[in-house]
Specification:
This protein has a single domain, classed as Distorted Sandwich (Glucose Permease (Domain IIA)), CATH 2.70.70. The protein is 22% helix and 38% strand. The chain is built from 2 helices and 13 strands; from the N terminus they run H-H-E-E-E-E-E-E-E-E-E-E-E-E-E. Strands 1, 4, 6, 7, 8, 10, 12 and 13 form an 8-stranded antiparallel beta sheet that branches. It has a 3-stranded antiparallel beta sheet with strand order 5-11-9, with no helix packed on it. The protein has a two-stranded antiparallel ribbon with strand order 2-3. The radius of gyration is 16 Å and the shape is globular.
């Protein structure tokens, strides 16, 4: 999962950099820098993407029987089936796709930061959509989705996974 998400986000970063180089727009570069800085300033203040309980945390997991190590690039938040999933910050939906471990997912760009929301039952927005913090992106999974009734939430900075917990409001 980590390598697939990292590869996808790295490709998106490269596409965006190429687009900015082609257009050469100083306004685009300034907007990108402002959004990155604004996101960074909100560490510890981002709203939770969904109401629920964290059942899987960020970081390496060790299988209790086999001892195998598996990296987890985000959180899994158990929630009510079909709960509203909301954007944690202003940004642009840059990708919507499907991955075996997290089902239907979307990536939202916030300058040099990206948030990943996965395990959707319903997605309400499309690629290229500008979203605002608190805007409903879709509905969390039901028991039919890969993670059951819940949401996968990841945070990436410059294409590398970052623990989302310190970025979210304490509750």
């Amino acid at each position: 999962l980590v390598s697939q998400l990292e590869a996808r986000i790295q490709a998106l970063i490269a596409e965006e950099a190429a687009r900015r180089n082609r257009t050469g727009s100083a306004a685009d570069a300034a907007a990108f820098a402002r959004l990155s800085g604004s996101f960074r300033q909100n560490r510890g203040r981002l709203p939770w993407p969904v109401a629920g309980t964290v059942v899987e945390t960020f970081g390496e997991k060790i299988h209790p029987v086999y001892g195998t190590r598996t990296p987890n690039p985000g959180l899994v938040i158990a929630t009510d089936p079909m709960a509203e999933v909301r954007a944690v910050f202003d940004g642009t939906v840059v990708s919507i796709d499907v991955m075996p471990d997290i089902g239907r997912y979307m990536i939202v760009e916030h300058g040099e930061y990206h948030t990943v929301y996965g395990n959707f039952a319903i997605i309400n927005v499309g690629e290229g959509t500008s979203v605002k913090a608190g805007q409903v992106l879709g509905r969390a999974g039901t028991d039919a989705e890969p993670k059951g009734a819940g949401l996968f939430f990841g945070l990436f900075h410059d294409g590398k996974p970052v623990d989302p917990m310190p970025w979210l409001l304490r509750r």
